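Structure in, sequence out. Go:
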């Protein structure tokens, strides 16, 4: 991934409380602060930043979203990825993202 900034972290997954809610992993707050200070100008609507994520052997194009309430970016976890990587909430996972 040339020209992109690489971030690696390990956090627990969680599910939004709405029925059939999406699964997410929150980026660490310090990392989110750094990303926001460097790349806020590239955000699209609702604090969206395009990204490439990798968990286990799965790598996909996605976006992270800034959550103002928790002051952190959220990475949504698609059902396809969760199934492939056996991810449930809460589960500690290792994530690599390129922004």
């Amino acid at each position: 991934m040339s020209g992109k900034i690489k971030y690696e972290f390990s956090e627990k997954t969680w599910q939004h409380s709405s029925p059939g809610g999406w699964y997410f992993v929150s980026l660490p707050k310090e990392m989110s602060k750094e990303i926001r200070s460097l790349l806020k100008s590239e955000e699209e609507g609702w604090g969206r930043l395009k990204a490439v994520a990798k968990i286990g052997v799965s790598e996909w194009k996605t976006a992270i979203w800034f959550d103002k309430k928790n002051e952190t970016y959220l990475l949504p976890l698609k059902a396809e990825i969760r199934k492939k990587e056996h991810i449930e909430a809460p589960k500690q996972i290792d994530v690599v993202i390129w922004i």
